[in-house]
Each structure stands twice: as C-alpha cells, then as structure tokens.
C-alpha cells in the first residue's frame, strides 16, 4: 500500500489530532509503515526530538501512535504565539523569526518548499502518511496563502476527510458549510465526513446522516462516540475550556492530594501535569483566581511563551500574592517567575524585571533558544526530560533539584516531561504530601508510559470499531472518489494559490 490522506476539521479542537492519531494507530497495528504529518501547526505545547528539533506535541503523540521516534519532518513549521499579533516561527525544529500576523504572509512564501520537501521525505520513507490540517479548510480569508489545508491537499492530490464536533452543536451546518465555501477544485477532494464526540442514541442521529449525504453527495465514514478519560497531548489551551478536574481515582493512602495548575494567558506545555493526574488520589485542576488555591496542596506554575507578561498577570489577579507559604512547583517559564530577578531583552524587551523572589535565582534571556533532551537523577531515581527555553536560570542558593533548585516548599526546573518518570514522580508527590501534611501515599505500580499506550490503543479501537476502515483504505490507495458534486456557492473567482508547484503526488 502507498498513499496519503488529509484529516481536516470544521473548527479548531474538532478532533483532528486524535482522529489522525487513531488512524495512525489502526494502520500501524495492521503492519502498515505509517507516519504523521502536519505542515503548519500553531501550538504552545511542543516537544524536542532526539536530534534537538522542536515540533508540536501532538505530532510527537501521533508518532508514538505509529511506533516511531518523532522527527522535524512530521511538523516542519511550528508557530508559537507570544501575543495576539506576534508569533515565533520555528522551521524544521529551529527558531527562524519573530513575526506579526501580516509579516507572516511574506514569510510563508519562503516556507512552501520546506513543507513540500518534508512531505516528500516522509512519503518516500513510509507506506502511508496521514496528514492533519490546521484550523478549518473553510477559513476563506486565509485560502490564498494556505500551506496546511486545501492548498496542500490540492497540490498533492490528497483525499480529505472532514471531522465535525457534534458536542458543540451545529455539526451538520458546519459540515455542509465547510464544503460549500470551497472552490470547486477544492470541493472535489472532500471525500467525506467523520462526526466526533457523539453521545446519545445513534438512531436519532441517522436521519441527519442521510440528509447530509443527500445534500453533499459525500459519505459519512463514521460516528465516533464520546470517549471519557482521553487526554492526549492536545495542541492548545482551547481544549482546557471544557476540561474538568481530572484524577480523583481512589487514593492509595487515606487522603487525596489536590494540585492547582495556574492557567497563564500564554500557558505552554501544560501537558507536563498529565502524569500527575494519572496517579490514584491526585486531583488536578486549572485555576485563574486566588480563591481557587485555598485547598491546594501543590500549586504548579507551568511553562509560558510570555514569561514577563504572564508574571504581570499573576500580580494583577492576586495569584502572586497568594503563593508565599504554599508548596509551589515552577516548570520552565514558571520557574523563571519564581526567581528574584528576570532580565529579558529578547522575548518581551522589558529589560530588568522583579521576579516573585521565592527561589534564590536570577534569569537572563538569551537570543539562542536552548533545545535538548537532558537526563539526570533526583530523589534517587533516573529522570529523562526535554527543555525548550530562552531564559537561562542561575541558582545561587537552595538545594539542587533536577537542573534547578529547591528552597523549602518551592521547587523549580526548566525540564519538561520530568513527571512522566514514574519513580521520580512518586518520590516528588510523597515529598509534597509530607510538606502539606497529607496522609497520601503514591501508588507503587502506575506506569505513565503504559497508560499512554493504552490511550493510543483506545484511539485505534475507536477508529476500527466506528469508522468504515475499508473506505479509508480505498481513499489511501485511490484518492478521492471521482465525480463528487460541487455545492453552491463554490466556483467564485477568488485567486487560486500558487502552492501547486513542486508538491509530490506519490511516494
């Protein structure tokens, strides 16, 4: 088998990432050599590959679904927003520029071939490439410069499956409207739909499925039921809007441990706390106000793409004033905020800024970003992690903690992913319980890596049991069906993109 397809979505957070991962897992279990790909990703949740390249965390998860070590080719362009108008552009795993929204239109012209070459390498190396779109393909104001959705699909002749989120309502209008807003040449590649996050009686949904087939001339390849407890390396903080407190399985000891994660405006790599929620008796919730810290045994200050700006937000909300005297873990940007001083002439240009002063350390931002996969030991256990930061922290006191320091009940480190190391995580939680006076004992047998594998298998099962996999195979091998009808108002005179040149159409 040789082929590729594109998983698009009616909106952000429709489920593109998990459907892509599920298809990848299902194919890998069939013995197919499959790889994920996302030409352009906008996310503050990122990962570092073995060779030191920064890519979207979702693509690292999808690579795991394929049984692969992630590579920069899987996400050649990564945008990391630092404000509503400016983003850092990461190209093939390395920072290229800091641009505003309008400047990026010019930058895009130089990135088309980068995306083309990455896809070409993947299609040459693997039997199947499952591509994920970005946002919605019907964002018509962005169509001309598109390098992630229909621009890519048309140039590479990729069949497209559109995912719609029924849980948010209006899914049939969203599916129909997505197709109708596209040009006829783009519509010809929309092969069909998958409806995601369905809860209820399937027979009630069936008349709508029949109508959308009749109205669009396209198949509904499957309806995916709502899957509780699935929390896998989401791309952005939009998914946090509907996330309840997680964890709360029966504790191994007599009491639970309550963790409050501060939801910073530019929060990044909040996937660091997923491992905490895997522990029985640990409850993790995201908070934005001081009152929500009242019963917290541990406060986590996570990573941030805008350390100085988010520190000002902490002070404005009163959260900063509520931290002294509490057990606090700062990770990357959160660690930087805990220092005495921060000198930032790079990210914010704010110069010297007073930190929270809860750790004996100082921070200076460097022009070059540190990207790596460090390893060490803590609490007598091995720790493997990854790091992504411009801020360089120098500790001048306290006790060593990973690459950072500890002072009393406050810990700081730049290492992401450290809590995924089971022995270290248990020892750290036992220390937090001792500091907070909780009768809490971490369970001795929780494996976060095994839990992630179980969740990836659950995604593969979701596709296998609820999607017409035979139709997916036909799309991979033969492309979009011929003769699909065009829907009005397709056929407008909008200028077509010039992305078509040079994109591969086969492996």
Automatic annotation (TrEMBL):
Region (Disordered): 483-507
Keywords, sorted A to Z: Cobalamin biosynthesis, Glutamine amidotransferase
Keyword tRNA processing: no
Pathway where it operates: Cofactor biosynthesis; adenosylcobalamin biosynthesis
Domain CobQ/CobB/MinD/ParA nucleotide binding: 6-230
Residues covered by the CobB/CobQ-like glutamine amidotransferase domain: 258-423
Catalytic residues in the record: 332 (nucleophile), 416
Compositional bias per record (Low complexity), positions renumbered to this chain: 483-494
Keyword Calcium included in the entry's annotation: no
SUPFAM superfamilies named in the record: Class I glutamine amidotransferase-like, P-loop containing nucleoside triphosphate hydrolases
Pfam families tied to this protein: CbiA, GATase_3
Record-stated family: Belongs to the CobB/CobQ family. CobQ subfamily.
Known function: Catalyzes amidations at positions B, D, E, and G on adenosylcobyrinic A,C-diamide. NH(2) groups are provided by glutamine, and one molecule of ATP is hydrogenolyzed for each amidation.
Record's protein name: Cobyric acid synthase
């Amino acid at each position: 088998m040789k082929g590729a397809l594109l998983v698009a979505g009616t909106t952000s957070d429709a489920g593109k990432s998990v459907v892509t991962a599920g298809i990848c897992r299902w194919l890998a279990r069939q013995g197919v050599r499959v790889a994920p790909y996302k030409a352009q990703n906008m996310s503050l949740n990122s990962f570092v590959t073995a060779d030191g390249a920064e890519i979207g965390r979702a693509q690292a998860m999808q690579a795991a679904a394929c049984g692969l070590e992630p590579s920069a080719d899987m996400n050649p362009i990564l945008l990391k927003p630092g404000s509503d108008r400016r983003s850092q552009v990461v190209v093939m795993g390395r920072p290229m520029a800091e641009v505003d929204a309008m400047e990026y239109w010019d930058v895009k012209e130089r990135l088309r071939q980068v995306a083309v070459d990455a896809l070409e390498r993947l299609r040459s190396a693997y039997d199947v490439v499952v591509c994920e779109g970005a946002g919605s393909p019907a964002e018509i104001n962005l169509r001309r410069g598109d390098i992630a959705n229909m621009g890519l699909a048309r140039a590479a002749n990729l069949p497209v499956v559109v995912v719609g989120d029924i849980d948010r309502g209006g899914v049939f209008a969203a599916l129909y409207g997505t197709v109708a807003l596209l040009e006829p040449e783009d519509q010809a590649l929309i092969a069909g739909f998958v409806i995601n996050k369905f809860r209820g009686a399937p027979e009630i949904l069936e008349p709508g499925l029949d109508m959308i087939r009749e109205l669009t001339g396209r198949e509904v390849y499957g309806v995916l039921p709502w899957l509780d407890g699935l929390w896998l390396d989401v791309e952005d903080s939009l998914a946090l809007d509907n996330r309840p407190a997680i964890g709360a399985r029966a504790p191994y000891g007599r009491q639970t441990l309550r963790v409050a994660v501060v939801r910073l405006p530019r929060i990044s790599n909040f996937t660091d706390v997923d491992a905490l929620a895997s522990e029985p008796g640990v409850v993790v919730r995201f908070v934005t106000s001081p009152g929500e810290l009242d019963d917290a045994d541990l406060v986590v200050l996570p990573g941030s793409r805008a350390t100085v700006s988010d520190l000002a937000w902490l002070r404005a909300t009163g959260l900063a004033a509520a931290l002294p005297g509490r057990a606090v873990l700062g990770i990357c940007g959160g660690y930087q905020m805990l220092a005495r001083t921060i000198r930032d002439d790079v990210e914010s240009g704010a110069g010297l800024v007073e930190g929270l002063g809860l750790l004996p350390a100082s921070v200076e931002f460097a022009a070059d970003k540190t990207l790596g996969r460090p390893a060490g030991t803590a609490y007598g256990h091995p720790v493997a992690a990854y790091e992504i930061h411009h801020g360089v922290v120098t500790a001048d006191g306290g006790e060593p903690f990973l690459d950072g320091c500890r002072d009393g009940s406050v810990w700081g480190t730049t290492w992401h992913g450290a809590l995924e190391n089971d022995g270290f995580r248990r020892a750290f939680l036992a220390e937090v319980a001792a500091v907070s006076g909780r009768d809490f004992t971490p369970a001795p047998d929780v494996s976060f890596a095994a839990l992630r594998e179980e969740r990836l298998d659950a995604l593969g099962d979701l596709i296998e049991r609820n999607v017409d996999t035979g139709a997916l195979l036909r799309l991979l091998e033969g492309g979009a069906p011929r003769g699909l009808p065009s829907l009005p108002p397709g056929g407008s005179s909008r200028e077509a993109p010039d992305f078509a040149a040079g994109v591969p159409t086969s492996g």
